[in-house]
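Give me structure tokens for this 190-residue protein.
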Amino acid sequence: MQAAGGAGPRPLFGGALSAVLPPAARDASELREIPDNQEVFAHRHGDQSLIVELLEYQGQVADRDAARYHFEDIAGGNEALERGSFEVTGVVQVSGSEVSLADCSSAWTLTGTQRVSKFNEEARNTVRLHLGLFRLPRFSTDVLVTFNDPQSISPDSSSAAAGSHREPWTEQDFRVLLQTLSLHDPALFG
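Here you go.
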């Protein structure tokens, strides 16, 4: 499966994983330091971003609750835990036939919103988050893919100066990434 622009899978984590990324995806490590457990991509013409993250497997959390667990963890990191600052609008189990990631015991998607500030600003923006969670208990790992899609930008946010967003990524771009995420080297997990 290829992206709209015809690009093939892109190596992640030194080639241990790969996935088809949407067009105009810029490696954020070219812009800032990124933790070793993350691959982060920013849209070249807007505030959308994609994060592929390797997290510790949360064995104490049932599969059906794990995506919500990670969503709430992100909300905590975004200082968006107060009432009315985050909402989950849907959690769906992904069919095994739609998953390319080997050794995945279950996969889930979650859609929700968070009211977050950028760069510790006072202004809060409403961001729709699409999460894809792949549970790999064999490797003690949860692979979390996050698509941050701003919906409402505060006029006081530094993002307001960016202006209009050319060729935004879509939910379909996100689904293609999830469906093409593949493992090539299990040594990635230690």
